[in-house]
Amino acid sequence: MSKLADYSSYIMTMDDPAWISYFNSSAKRDITNSNKKIANLILESSEKDEEVDDIVTEDEFELEITKEAENIELEARRDEFEEFAMLKASIDNACEQIEKRLKEREQEKSKLVNELEASRDENESCWLQIEELEANVEETNDILGNVIQEKSNLVEALRVENESYKMQIEDLEAKYTEEKCKLVSDLEASRDENERYKMQIKGLEAKYEEVNDYFEIGIEEKCKLFHELEASREEVEKYNKALENLNSSFRDVSMDAFDAKEALYLTLLENESYKKLNDEHVMNMEESNEALEKLKLAYEEVTLEAKEAKRALFLTRLDIKNNQFEIDRLKFFMNEEKTKYEKQIEDLMAKNELEAREASDNYEKQIEYLISINEKNVLEAREASDDYKKQIEDLMAKNEKNESTLNDWIFGDWKLVEEQEQQQLDHN
Fold first, then answer.
1. How confident is the model at residue 69 (pLDDT cuts 50, 70, 90)?
2. Residues 6+ apart with CB under 8 A from 81
3. Which residues form a coiled coil (predicted)?
4. Where along the chain do its domains lie?
């Protein structure tokens, strides 16, 4: 295009009449200057000849003296004149060459005019094409400006969204750290409560052993009393039989009856003492039953506290699940945003490939960085949740084990005691 413009400008300058007149005037000026120089030389030579004639007529004497010098000067002038004549001839030759060149220039001018007329049509078509290209360039510049504006808007929107994502991620990290600290504190509290429960269970075990020993002693004493009561019942039966025998033979043997009455009175006194002892043993049994009721109440309190601990552990599990759901939701949202940005990047790549590639690389790096941070947070949350689950399962297993041992200790021995009492009652 630049070569075509230079060629067209050259043709237009050659066709310009001002340029042609300038060229002709410069050539004419050179010719007139050369003619003037030749005329001046001729005038100078004629003046010298006249001066020589004047000098000869006026001062013949001086002419004879200076004749030789003048001849020398004339020879020099003639040489100069010859040189001027040669110069004039050369100037004439130059003028002829200039005229030839002018004719050649005119011929070239006619050729150039014809070429110019032929190239004007081409130039017009070229100018039309140039105008179309300029219009297309303006359209592409407008499109490029719109693309650059859209790119800047997208970059600004992406920056704002990245800042919002960073804020959300920081908030989530803060929440996660708070929840983690809370879970750790809850876990420590549950551990302390578990230790406290263990101490209480140990104290209850010691109390239960004491009560069990006391209860066994009471059962042994009760068994002894039952045996004594059986023996006393046998004696009473014997005494009753003896009384019957005494009643039958009362009239005959009054002294024996009086002795029998005294023995019967003594046996009645002994029976009353045995009843008092039995009542005391019953009171002891009631006290042991009250102690067992207290143990049951303490066990119920322990079970309630264990249920509360289970409920707290269940709530912590729910919180962990909610945090996991929130993390999955953010991951899904970030994947959707990633697909949306990838689609926008593809559109920009179709419009402006190089800039879109750079933007896509930056977007992908930022998105990969965010995804890596999110995956890292998810892994940390999962590891923490797994640790919490393991600790919770261990606590639940220990709690169930403690409950089973308490049930075995309390209800097993209680059933044994009830069976023994039932057997004794059946026996009585």
1. low
2. 41, 45
3. 88-249, 278-405
4. 2-147, 148-427
